Amino acid sequence: MNIVDLSRSAHGGLRIAADRIEATAAAQHLIPIVVSEFRKAAIQYPIVFAKNPETGRFAPYVLTGLTPEENLFWTGTELDVAYVPLNVRRQPFYVGGESALCVDLDSPCLDEAGTKLLVNADGSDSAHLQSVLAVLGELVAGRAPTEQFIASLLALDLLAPMLLDIVLDDGTPLKIQGLYGLDEDRFRQLPANELSGLWSGGRLDLIYAVLLAGGQIFNLIRLKNRRIALGRAWHGND
After folding, report:
1. What pTM value is reported for the model?
2. pLDDT reading at 200 higher than 70
3. How many whole angstroms separate alpha carbon 17 and alpha carbon 191?
4. Which residues share a beta bridge with 176?
């Protein structure tokens, strides 16, 4: 990676290959999200928690694969999903120190033949850059509420290691470790005053979104089984 502060004068000629943006998630089995995405993400993915490798703190993620570097929603050309997480859509842009807009000059999304401009002929931000700024703005705005939500879960001892023992259709066993989910039993035992506090703080609906999203693990298993079956059929035709 070669992340630098974006200069509209120095980098105004950069072009984005829009069809490569989603490809940046092709080998991601965990994609970080913020709480404003929970409701939209819950219709597609399991929402899990893991320690951020950079900060060591817990953060929420959508789970897209059952093994490392596996995204079961990647078709080879696009993500077959109803909702694409903000951290995918922002590529190849980042927020640096003091909220500076940055770009990864080594990103495969940058291509001279790309169809998306950063700067219009009159020097104004292109529609694509404006949409990226909106995405980055939502990510930045979501940092504090997300950290506060995690702090509430930890304070109430609601995070617990996930124990997933899966056996695929072909008999292959899979164990998912290192992830955390909501402790439903502990949640049900919370006293009324704690539940009231979660509700008044706008966090109770987030908890329910996470709980509902847990059922999406069965969709991941279905996609994994289908991918294995298709792979066998393909090799059988060789």
Report:
1. 0.91
2. yes
3. 52
4. 164
pLDDT recorded at residue 138: 95
- In angstroms and rounded to an integer, the radius of gyration of the C-alpha atoms of the chain is 20
Q: Is the pLDDT of residue 60 over 60?
A: yes
Q: Is the peptide bond before 60 cis (omega within 30 degrees of 0)?
A: no
What is the distance between the alpha carbons of residues 157 and 64, in angstroms, rounded to a whole number? Answer: 26
* Rounded distance between C-alpha atoms, residue 225 and residue 170, angstroms: 8
- Nearest CA-CA partner of 184 in 206, 202, 210, 205: 210
Residues 6+ apart with CB under 8 A from 100: 5, 6
Between CA 139 and CA 90 the distance in angstroms is 9
What is the Cα–Cα distance from 171 to 183, expressed in whole angstroms?
Answer: 29
Q: Which 3 state secondary structure label does DSSP give 182?
A: strand
The strand pairing partners of 58, in sequence order, are 51
- Token output for 207: 């908890």
Residue 93 tokens, joined: 């842009």
Average pLDDT score over the chain: 91
For residue 103, give Cα distances in angstroms to 7, 91, 98: 9, 8, 15
Q: What are phi and psi of 5, to 5 degrees?
A: -65, 135
pLDDT reported for residue 184: 94
Contact (CB, 8 A) for 12 and 106: no
Altogether, the residues listed in the chain come to a count of 238
The pLDDT of residue 136 is above 90: yes
State mean pLDDT over 148-163.
Answer: 95
